[in-house]
UniProtKB/TrEMBL annotation:
Pfam families: Sulfatase. GO terms for molecular function: hydrolase activity. It comes from the Bacteria. The modification 3-oxoalanine (Ser) is found at residue 75. The lineage of its organism: Bacteria, Pseudomonadati, Bacteroidota, Bacteroidia, Bacteroidales. Belongs to the sulfatase family. The conversion to 3-oxoalanine (also known as C-formylglycine, FGly), of a serine or cysteine residue in prokaryotes and of a cysteine residue in eukaryotes, is critical for catalytic activity. This is Arylsulfatase. Residues 27-399 form the Sulfatase N-terminal domain. Keywords: Hydrolase. The keyword Hydrolase applies. It comes from Bacteroides faecium.
Length: 505
């Protein structure tokens, strides 16, 4: 249905019809959520070892933030917070979800998709989900309707992978049903027991034709498309995704959604699988980065961004669309497969100038790329303001002029002026969630003590955990090398107090 929402008090006198429609229709919002793409993985953030021209163009026409944070250093908690405005650490069940996890955001919880839906938008989630589906872990009806699903938390349309590329089930789920499933070949999924007779990466390494897991890194259970994964599955042969087509499937469904809704306001959460493992670029990107699969999927990601922007331009709705481009957590080079990412890295620094990476309480864990583009509305340029993805919900409510209750927005704050590049300060603090909780005011950063291990050998990550309190002067020591906790006890006390206040509410 074609509806044009004329905002109160505005008229289009003298404007051509198409332009009038663009100026008076509520603006569309697209989130491009990358997976494991680090601050240094995009050329606009200064690493000239990789070329990502489409992202660069988006950044040039918008606001590029240099101190923006995901809430957590892994996907499930980070995405939970992004979509709900609640800190993931308020719950104990927001850790990295298995592929058969029950839906973590319960239907009664308010989400950013509810916000847009209630405001009359068409809403969609396309791509990586990783927040569970169905009522209870392991109880999903993979051969019927998986319920509750994304429709129950505000998304009219969904086309998703349940968890990650390296977790079963390796199928697309569209509006709660596995796509392409044949009734005589039902699908079974388990994270407890292997299915008798099904070969595993561990028992049949000779069947691993595409890539093998890194030594001791797991990923040696069900084999799908010559790659072993986490978890067990059998059946559903016709429904299995092809790894090299994952990104094209996401892009095609995303662009179709945009096209279908070009005349009505829409909210699209487009979550790419790039650059998560296993990294299998489409053949047309193979060899394009000179860095092997990890670099090639960055080029693929850049192409994706280009496709979105070109489509908006072609449909004449670019000016009326706000795009947020970001990533769910920091980068990791070896995350479990022998894809030569470490050997071929060369001078490229996915983590930029920061210490740590995905999984870490050091900055590279959550300091992520963050670009806001809304032609004619934002103050173009680079912003050093302190920004957190937790604010997406309240900021979008501000954008739509929708009042939220305290419980709905909980930890999320209205930051529209900052996201538009006009307020240069941003938040007073950001809280970072990895092995330990950390808090930064942009100048100083405090990491609370933790007895968890300090170093993850498998991924070669400094996790930032220490039994001692840590305090870094980020303004002078961006690499978090000098722990000043003992020299500045007052600063430690201040930051701890703010953190404690958040923990108490
Ligand atoms: C870890 C996996 C890693 C990746 C991660 C989730 C092992 C040893 N490592 O447990 O490969 O899948 O979970 O990544 O299994 S995330 O970006 O979705 O959070
Ligand atoms: Ca991730």
């Amino acid at each position: 249905m074609r509806t044009i929402n004329i905002l109160a008090g505005l008229t289009c006198a003298g404007l051509p019809v198409a332009l009038c429609a663009q100026q008076t229709q509520k603006p569309n919002v697209i989130v491009i959520m990358a997976d494991d793409i680090g601050y240094g993985d995009l050329s606009c953030y200064g690493e000239k070892t990789i070329q990502t021209p489409n992202v660069e163009r988006l950044a040039k026409g918008g606001v590029r933030f240099t101190d923006a944070h995901a809430v957590a250093a892994t996907s499930t908690p980070s995405r939970y917070s992004f979509l709900t405005g609640h800190y993931s650490w308020r719950r104990t069940d927001t850790g990295i979800a298995p592929g058969d996890a029950g839906m973590i955001i319960r239907p009664e919880q308010y989400t950013v998709a509810d916000l847009f839906k209630d405001a009359g938008y068409a809403t969609a989630a396309i791509g990586k989900w990783h927040l569970g589906m169905g009522d209870k872990t392991g109880q999903q009806n993979w051969n019927g309707l998986i319920s509750p699903g994304l429709k129950d938390i505000g998304f009219d349309y969904s086309y998703i992978m349940a968890a990650t590329g390296d977790r079963v089930p390796c199928v697309w789920v569209e509006n709660g049903r596995v796509v392409g499933l044949e009734s005589d070949d039902p699908i079974f999924v388990s994270y407890k027991e292997p299915f008798p007779g099904e070969p595993l990466g561990k028992t049949h390494p000779e069947l691993l034709t595409v890539m093998k897991p890194s030594p001791n890194h797991g990923h040696d259970q069900a084999i799908v498309n010559g790659i072993s994964r986490i978890g067990y599955m059998k059946g559903g042969k016709k429904a299995l995704w092809k790894d090299e087509n994952i990104n094209d499937s996401i892009v095609t469904h995303g662009l179709d959604f945009i096209e279908q809704h070009k005349d009505t306001p829409f909210f699209l959460y487009l979550a790419t699988n790039d650059a998560h493992v296993p990294r299998v670029p489409h053949p047309r990107f193979v060899g394009k980065s000179g860095m092997g699969p990890r670099g090639d999927v960055l080029v693929e990601f850049d192409w994706t961004v280009g496709q979105v922007v070109e489509t908006l331009e072609r449909l004449g709705i670019r000016e009326n669309t706000l795009i947020v481009l970001t990533s769910d957590n920091g980068p990791v080079v070896d995350d479990g497969y022998q894809d030569r990412a470490v050997d071929l890295l060369g001078k490229h620094r996915p983590w930029g100038p920061f210490r740590g990476g995905k999984y870490s309480s050091f900055e590279a864990g959550t300091r992520i790329p963050f670009i806001v583009s809304y032609p004619g509305k934002v103050k173009k340029g680079i912003s050093k303001a302190l920004v957190s993805q937790i604010d997406f919900l309240a900021t979008m409510a501000e954008f739509l002029s929708v009042p939220l209750t305290e419980e709905q927005k909980k930890d999320s704050r209205e930051q529209l002026q900052t996201w538009y590049g006009k307020d240069k300060k941003g938040r007073d603090y950001v809280i970072e969630h990895a092995g330990s909780l950390a808090i930064s005011d942009g100048t100083w950063k405090y990491i609370s003590p933790s007895k968890k291990k300090a170093y993850e050998k498998l991924t070669n990550t400094e996790l930032g955990n220490s039994p001692e309190e840590q305090l870094y002067l980020l303004k002078k020591d961006i690499g978090e090398k000098r722990n000043l906790a003992k020299e500045y006890p007052e600063k430690v006390k201040d930051l701890k107090q703010v953190l404690a206040k958040h923990l108490a509410c």
